[in-house]
Amino acid sequence: MTAPLPAPAPAPSLVAVTGAEGFIGSHLTEALVAAGHRVRAMAQYNSFSSYGWLETLSAETLGQVDIVLGDVRDPGSVDQLVEGAEAVYHLAALIAIPYSYQAPHSYVDTNVTGTLNVLEAVRRQGTPRLVHTSTSETYGTAQTVPITEDHPIRTQSPYAASKAGGDRLADSYHASFGTPVVTLRPFNTFGPRQSMRAVIPTVIGQVAAGERTITLGDLRPTRDFLYVKDTARAFLAVGTAPAEAVVGRTFNAGTGGEISVGELTRLIGKLMDTDLDVREDEERIRPAHSEVMRLVADASRLRAATGWQPGYDLEQGLGHTIDFFRDPGNLSRYKTGIYNI
């Protein structure tokens, strides 16, 4: 008697990611595949057919990723991305604060209109879950510490204002149409693949390239730095938690700790066994009323709803990031000798 064939394994659930080619998006794509999902990953259309950081993922991971070139500013692109997905993770955004002073219209187009297009596509397609990405910059300088999700919104840059606009649209679609959206508000994510417009890769990249005189902006602001793998896990947590626990809500993701830019730079010098001469550059300092002086997260709501908590402390995350930038192949992708905005 012939033994019955084993039942086929269930097909992995399909999820979609906007901004998948970027720093956090590429780490999230890896995490989603590791969790058993198939990922339809949107990278912004470009004439080089570049897939950004997705090109560095392992062949095994990419075997579960369908990369499409598109643009969240185009409704048709978003509709095609969302179709058939069980969940959508919306990370596509313009994020560099200094450039938002120069090109604010482009931030509204991407961060507000792009978010509107994602919300409309999810609404039309009946997608079961949308995870929308916010930013701690929407809070502005902390009025109370640690910052809970009920802290007032005070946008101090065009970037922050554009992200707050997307947040408000997400809230309104849940209230008006029952769109199953949950908003994740990560604090300052760092780690391998981050661009040089952020302070940690700026410092590590300059040291790895042989510089000992480090040029930065204001050294006084404090930040709550969250390692990128913990950020990716926070996205998975709100993307897969029971709807009644997360839908229609906003969640901070952070460690609850803070460190000033100056102290952080000294710590990086210690971990890289290098004496640094740190200098402030006026060009890198935000306008007087635009600098956010203090950010530190209260992530207790996220822990209570999903059980998430950080798995890496600051020194562990910095160690992994230093290893990444010390690799000549990785460092060669960056321009460490210029001010990257």
Distance between the termini: 70 Å
CATH structural class: Alpha Beta
Q: Could you tell me the strand content as a percent range?
A: 15-25%
Low-confidence stretches: none
- Radius of gyration using CA atoms only: 20 Å
Return the structural class: alpha/beta
What is the 3D form? Answer: globular
Please name the CATH topology. Rossmann fold
Return the average pLDDT rounded to an integer.
94
DSSP, total strands: 13
Helix residue percentage: 25-40%
Taken together, the total number of domains comes to 1
Explain how this protein is built.
- There is one protein chain.
- The chain is an alpha/beta fold.
- It has one domain (14-331): NAD(P)-binding Rossmann-like Domain (Rossmann fold, 3-Layer(aba) Sandwich).
- It has helices spanning 23-34, 59-62, 75-82, 97-102, 104-125, 158-177, 199-208, 228-240, 243-246, 261-271, 300-306, 314-326, 328-331, and strands at residues 14-18, 38-44, 65-70, 87-90, 130-133, 181-186, 188-190, 213-216, 222-223, 225-227, 250-253, 259-260, 277-280.
- The strands form 4 sheets. It has a 7-stranded parallel beta sheet, sandwiched between helices. A two-stranded parallel sheet has the order 7-10. A two-stranded parallel sheet has the order 8-13.
- The longest helix is centred in the middle third of the chain and has 22 residues, at 104-125.
- The mean pLDDT is 94.
Can you lay out the helices and strands and say which pair or pack?
Layout lengths: L13 E5 L4 H12 L3 E7 L14 H4 L2 E6 L4 H8 L4 E4 L6 H6 L1 H22 L4 E4 L24 H20 L3 E6 L1 E3 L8 H10 L4 E4 L5 E2 L1 E3 H13 L2 H4 L3 E4 L5 E2 H11 L5 E4 L19 H7 L7 H13 L1 H4 L10
Parallel strand pairs: 1-2, 1-4, 2-3, 4-5, 5-6, 6-11, 7-10, 8-13
Antiparallel strand pairs: 9-12
